[in-house]
Design brief:
The chain is α/β, with parallel strands linked by helices. It has 23 helices and 19 strands. The chain folds into 3 domains: 177 residues, 3-Layer(aba) Sandwich (Rossmann fold), CATH 3.40.50; 160 residues, TPP-binding domain (Rossmann fold, 3-Layer(aba) Sandwich), CATH 3.40.50.1220; 190 residues, Thiamin diphosphate (ThDP)-binding fold, Pyr/PP domains (Rossmann fold), CATH 3.40.50.970. Strands 3-2-4-5-7-6 form a 6-stranded parallel beta sheet, sandwiched between helices. Helix 4 links the parallel strand 4 and strand 5. The protein is globular, with a radius of gyration of 25 Å. Helix 3 packs across helix 18. The protein is 40% helix and 16% strand. The structure holds adenosine-5'-diphosphate, ligand TZD and magnesium ion (MG). Adenosine-5'-diphosphate (ADP) binds next to helix 11.
């Protein structure tokens, strides 16, 4: 590869950045070009990196974040200054909230001008703005510090609790030159970026003692457990102890959802009933009623409160964030789970059979009830009849990656569609953020080379929908299924003022999202029956072509806010 800047034995900032990334096995950039990083994208591509250009930085940022989750390497998002940077910031913050490792690299305007607020092109003190929103933030001013800057960013993103890192690279840095040999020597190949953290033996023993005495034990697997890639040991721990488990949404598939110890179909029973709960890479946040509230879903809730907790987490400050943790085990999940496993002998007593029996009974009953609902074939389709199709497609194609967002489109999919393999389900995570869809889908297809099916609410899709062009441009095996119920939660809402505007949650009725995919050369299908949906999904998987299926769903089939109606202020106040 020829480098004009090296003809005279010099290397520039552009190439130092590229070489530093490559030296650390980072081979992909998700970004959006413009001043001052256009040439960086061109040169990175020329130097053999994969550069995936998006239509909006938020989607590039979400792509980087989920690439980090899937690979344990920080995903890179590259943006221009001020507005591009701000567009990427939501994704950076969301990555930090979800413990996904990513690095947002933004070009920025000149310090001298920014600091005197003299009105530079895209002027903004980006470093100061990014700092409170991510795990760490750095700025590099001199070419000889690029190696250190990138090394620090990588370590910060992946060590300990993973998260988002901001790296500020002012425009002038890229054109700086230095002696090529000295430049090369200044780069750092990060050794052991995410060091194992071995739990203390007494902490492990304390956890084992607590589990041993349990009458109604339960394990909760979170997305930290999925991230850790300790799949075989986690499965061995669950099977050896015989303890029933619940997967949080992105932990589905670490063990197949059809596993006999899965208590997912008895969730609202086991959560309040369990006496000892072991959390593996899951936080006791709102998604688990803070460990003390009512189980979400609202109806058959029962206060928790008598549980004892074991919490396995890499963050030493996570314990006691919501309720007392009786046995914190601090370390990386791989090391913690293997330490627990070595403390479990062949004489380990399985949980009492009345606990397992009670769970099995509810599970069987709930699964049978769901099977009845899924069998119905209403016209137009509802979420259940459409998702029965999706469920069969995933059963037949377990390697496929699912991306999922929306309200009803999210909640029904999560509970109806079984996952069979780890890290195949990617969704709105800790914040319940809309807009991750197409960014996640693009990155999942790019980094895993596996087919992707995105199940999207029609509102959710709108946040990143323009990236269907990106999907077509890179010819990715992505099939987008829009659960089109004419709006946010549905299309039934009415404007009580009597004016001509529709209600705030209602969209154009009968919209044809499939035409969007056709506009860029992909396959668009309008599906009004389960059979049409099944045919279109199977064809998409067979052909690998970018496909968008507009699944026409009864606009009255959803509920307000999906399963989290109880969090709406009015409802929450009434329930108090
Ligand atoms: P979920 O939403 O699935 O319940 P959370 O995002 O709330 O999961 O929790 C993930 C937890 O996993 C975080 O507390 C994080 O510190 C932890 N974690 C992430 N990676 C690791 C790891 N490799 N080892 C141990 N803990 C981890
Ligand atoms: N904006 C952002 C960034 N995140 C959000 N979560 C919301 C707004 C609020 N919101 C939800 O929590 S779900 C949702 C919004 C706008 C869309 C629900 O409509 P949908 O799904 O069409 O995607 P269903 O199937 O119609 O319920
Ligand atoms: Mg909708």
């Amino acid at each position: 590869m020829t480098r004009d800047t090296q003809a005279d034995g010099q290397i520039d900032g552009f190439h130092l950045v590229i070489d530093a990334l490559k030296l650390n096995d980072i081979d992909t950039i998700f970004g959006l070009p413009g001043i001052p990083i256009t040439d960086l994208t061109r040169m990175a591509q020329a130097e053999g990196m994969r550069v995936i250009s998006f239509r909006h930085e938020q989607n590039a940022g979400n792509a980087a974040a989920i690439a980090g989750f899937l690979t344990q390497k920080p995903g890179i998002c590259l943006t221009v200054s001020a507005p591009g940077f701000l567009n990427g910031l939501t994704a950076l913050t969301n990555a930090t909230t979800n413990c996904f490792p990513m690095i947002l690299i933004s070009g920025s305007s000149e310090r001298e001008v920014v600091d005197l607020q003299q009105g530079d092109y895209e002027e903004m003190d980006q470093l100061a703005i990014a700092k409170p929103l991510c795990k760490a933030a750095f700025r590099v001013l001199n070419a000889e510090d690029i190696g250190v800057g990138i090394a620090r960013a990588i370590r910060s993103a992946v060590s300990g609790r993973p998260g988002g890192v901001y790296l500020d690279l002012p425009a002038k840095l890229f054109a700086q030159t230095m002696d090529a040999a000295a430049g090369k020597a200044s780069l750092i190949k990060v050794v052991d970026a995410a060091p194992r953290q071995i739990p203390a033996p007494d902490a492990v023993q304390r956890a084992l003692d607590l589990l041993k005495g349990a009458k109604k034990p339960l394990i909760i697997l979170g997305k930290g457990a999925a991230y850790a890639q300790a799949d075989a040991d986690i499965r061995a721990l669950i099977e050896k102890t015989g303890i029933p488990y619940l997967p949080m949404s992105m932990a589905k598939g670490i063990l197949p959802d059809t596993h006999e110890q899965s208590a997912a179909a008895a969730r609202s029973f086991v959560l309040p009933e369990a006496d000892v709960v072991m959390l593996i890479g899951a936080r006791l946040n709102w998604l688990l009623s803070h460990g003390k509230g009512k189980t979400w879903g609202g109806k058959d809730h029962k206060a928790w409160g008598n549980q004892k907790y074991v919490q396995i987490d890499i963050s030493p400050t996570e314990a006691d964030s919501n309720v007392a943790i009786d046995a914190p085990v601090v370390g990386d999940i791989g090391s913690c789970v293997s330490a627990l496993l070595s403390g479990i002998g062949s004489n380990w007593a399985k949980p009492p059979s009345d606990w397992l029996g009670a769970i099995a009974e509810r599970r069987t009953k709930n699964i049978a009830k769901m099977a009845e609902t899924l069998k119905k074939n209403p016209s137009p389709m509802n979420f259940h009849s459409a998702l029965a199709v999706v469920r069969d497609v995933f059963k037949a194609n377990p390697e496929t990656i699912m991306v999922n967002e929306g309200a009803n489109a999210l909640d029904f999919t999560r509970s109806i569609v079984d996952m069979y393999l780890p890290r195949k389900r990617l969704d709105v995570g800790t914040w319940g953020i809309m807009g991750i869809g197409m960014g996640f889908a693009v990155a999942a297809a790019v980094v895993t080379k596996k087919p992707v099916i995105a199940i999207e609410g029609d509102s959710a899709f709108g946040f990143s929908g323009m990236e269907v062009e990106t999907i077509c441009r890179y010819n990715l095996p992505v099939c987008v299924v829009i659960m089109n119920n004419n709006g946010v939660y549905g299309g039934m809402d009415v404007n009580k003022s009597g004016s001509a505007d529709v209600a705030p949650t209602v969209f154009v009725k009968g919209a044809r999202y499939d035409k969007m995919m056709e506009a860029f050369g992909g396959v668009g299908v309008n599906a009004t029956t389960p059979q049409e949906l099944a045919n279109a999904m199977n064809e998409a998987l067979k052909s690998g072509k970018p496909t968008l299926i507009n699944a026409v769903i009864d606009e009255a089939a959803g509920t307000e806010s999906g399963r989290i109606t109880s969090l709406n202020p009015q409802t929450a106040a009434k329930n108090k």
